[in-house]
């Protein structure tokens, strides 16, 4: 089976590579010539554990190809996945420019039946727009060519995307015809031999499922952060509360960890897009709007704790940050709490020293030399007035406390992910502030 995947970003590259790993002949397409050139030379544009060796293995096996020309692929492939970016517009809506560009290119060049599958996260109703764009281009050519449009939203966790794709707990597919359903079932069957679970539904429901899933997870995070903030005020311990409610099988334990806010490429963008979709249809998503407000406030909570600790006087102080990416095992800094914290620290007159195992180059790309980049966690804390832990990388979990204390001007830690034991830090002579306790 031969397919094309348009877009070699996070979703597209993982999707194409994993399909190739299962024996599918895959051509990945991107308009970025430099990115395609790098991929052909074995240079991977994103960090994802396990992805680089898988890409190289499948390129060498002749199952994975990279090109900038979608037109030349269309005669050979049965399925085209559209995995291009849908960045938020200024009003929070999803920008569908690249999605529609792909649709028009297909309509302008297709010569036989193709199943067009939207992999990007798109608002409900996008499939209809894709179909209309393809039909409009076919009409211009005076042709009647059969094609199908389907929706196959991704549910990949950054840092664990290969496992998620290769062993999915479910695959959601929205289709309009039996032919499209059979093609998608055949394509995914190798991934699900032990637990074949493709959930077929209508296309609008599939498009909505992606937004609803991310909105629910974001809601759980913001809910726990709201509870954590109240716990601090009334003297409760949010970790105990989390264990208490997480033991209820109706609630479960996942996504109940309080912290300094969610970020990344999915939750913030999808929450905004869902709010905008509702407004376009005359409805207010009251819960989801509150989720977004809580999260934006939560990103500043560590800065506010630091500011309170120093009585509002941060001018001239040096602060260390451990962690820049929005979560471990990725270099993704989109909507990362670290960016909010750094911005507030710099505006308050602080000098900022940072370290992240993976995301240093991405940080430089985003904010340049406004902060001091350090080689390890200990260099970052030399002479600082406080340490802020933003991302829960594993290598941050068991530092040498005496070395840390002796390096810092003021041995105080603000933990945005609650990864340390307060009693242990107190025993080692460090002051400690976390979330919800």
Structure in words:
It is built from 17 helices and 14 strands. The chain is of the alpha/beta class. It folds into three domains: 200 residues, Rossmann fold (3-Layer(aba) Sandwich), CATH 3.40.50; 87 residues, Rossmann fold (3-Layer(aba) Sandwich); 135 residues, NAD(P)-binding Rossmann-like Domain (Rossmann fold, 3-Layer(aba) Sandwich), CATH 3.40.50.720. The chain has a six-stranded parallel sheet, sandwiched between helices. It has a six-stranded parallel sheet with strand order 11-10-9-12-13-14. Strands 7-8 form a two-stranded parallel ribbon. Helix 1 crosses helix 3. 44% of the residues are buried.
Characterize this entry briefly.
This protein is α/β, with parallel strands linked by helices and 437 residues long.
